[in-house]
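User: Show me a protein chain along with its predicted structure.
Assistant: Here is one chain, sequence first, then structure tokens.
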Amino acid sequence: NPARISPLQSPGINDTTTISFTLTIDLNITMELVDESDLVVRYYNLGLTQAGTILYSPNDLVGLGDGDYTVRVTGYLPAVPDQPIEPPQETTLVVDDTAPVLGINLINDQSAVNDLVLKCSTVTFSGEMSDAHPCSLAIALKKGNNNYAVVREENFTSLPAHSSLYTLHDADDGHWTIKLTAIDATGISSEYL
């Protein structure tokens, strides 16, 4: 699985990643971060690295745009510094600094959701969600000044517009509020009240 990071959003959560590889002999190591257009956007010269399991955590990932990046690790014998000993080893790093997009409407009544006064006992909410990666979506309802109660939680890659989200049956008359919360794989969240 590719590592997923979000260097700009949610400080302290998925800001960076650790790249791990194993060497059977001492080698000079270089590492490149290559974007989708095959442009090297970060270059690291780790120098002569001793055999063993190597863990490297780059600290300069802020500023990378959303997208998939190839991490390319290349080893060179100390005596022959210009010739790689074998093809580079590669893995994928996904940068996602974009929050999920949420929208909601009512099927029974097109009034504003965040100021909903029910005039019937059954209301169906529909909406949409989109993000580049799968998200968890939680739907919560509250009446008046009560606390929110989660009524549905699921994982989605996306929900097209006007997807049925939840039907509230036998609702009491009064002021209700619905809250959608979507959290993507990098921990970025969006909330719709």
